[in-house]
Amino acid sequence: MAATFDRTWKALAARVDAALDRFLPAENASPRELHRAMRYSVFAGGKRLRPVLCLLSGKMMGERVTALLPPACALEMVHTYSLIHDDLPAMDDDDVRRGKPTSHRVFGEALAILSGDALLTLAFETITRRTKDAGLVAALTHELARAAGSDGMVGGQTFDVLSEGKPPDATLVDEIHRRKTAALIRASVRMGAMTGGASKAELRDLTHFGEAVGLLFQITDDLLDETGDDRRMGKRLRKDAEHGKQTYPRVHGVEESRALAEKLAAKATLALKKYGRRAGMLLAVPTFILSRRK
Ligand code: GRG
User: Is the pLDDT higher at 94 or at 239?
Assistant: First the structure.
């Protein structure tokens, strides 16, 4: 089961990578430094969680992968932009991302900021240029903008920055993680479903699934920071502690956070259980996230 899951995931991620390669400006197109920086971060590695979720929920609706690739790639562009900006000295000031030197360490701060800006913009260009149905273009644009903006990811990052050094607060950590991480993951599932023409009821169930998976992903990320043997962790954990970051284990403790993660995995699975085999690999995603090591 795990081997089949891995193989299918890799195959879908490879489709995403090939499409990203087509959708991104060529490295030798002017301005070269900007396009090199955009490509450097997009192809630095990464699990492709958001685009694969988009493909899986669209496939559940019977949609072709080719029609799902524009929104899937748009999600990865937005995600990559957020990582580039999050690593900047003004934010987390990180030297390594996806196992490689961060964008600003390689290209300088100005180019890192600009490549993030260009990726964010290209995400919307990709949807509008490569999706035929005008109604769907509007719906996908709205969905991605809401998830990425002040009501979603950027809002969550703002709360995160402003809450540094404050005492652990359960309501605050929930608010930060729902916006900063879960909003884009929820949108990933919804955008696949919308592209595949999901009914209202299907979209509602997939939204519940996406919400639970998004929060689950962030809690397991916090737990990996706290308990993981991964090299990135020592540094991140020290930083989180130094900056007084709001994390689940800091607020609830490791055991309770683990129990919460398991509860969310069960909730996500339950949301799609009635679809049985039709839900396909989506049903295995919560377990995959629970057991992830990086
Ligand atoms: C700067 C606007 C702005 C937003 C930043 C996503 C984010 C918001 C910051 C990244 C920092 C962080 C650790 C956030 C938690 C979400 C998370 C676990 C991101 C990493 O996502 P993965 O594990 O990364 O999917 P890969 O590299 O696999 O794509």
Answer: 94
